[in-house]
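anyone seen this seq b4? input:
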Amino acid sequence: MEAQFGELLQQLPSRTEVPSLLNDISKTRIASGLEEELFKPRPEEMRDFYAILPNDLIVTGDYHELGRFVSGVAALSRIVTIENINIEPIEEGDDSGDLRMS
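predicted toks r here
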């Protein structure tokens, strides 16, 4: 159990890796075909042995593009979580199928 815990700790990004991690998330968004409406870092939240670096993100695209993005973020080599998701049509009555995920 301690060995597994050590492996998981290594997956948490260090402070020096945060800019490249944010860049990887941005590249994942682009590769998924999503348009970005907002990418806003929020203040760091300290926990017992790690820090949470929350970001507000709003992207638009179709259902499959959103799925590719979430899958791509999950496949990153570092621990990244996606929480408090809201997905809705861009505009009421819009038949394009485009969605907004925040």
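The helical segments are 2-11, 18-32, 63-74. The radius of gyration is 16 Å. kinda curious what u guys think
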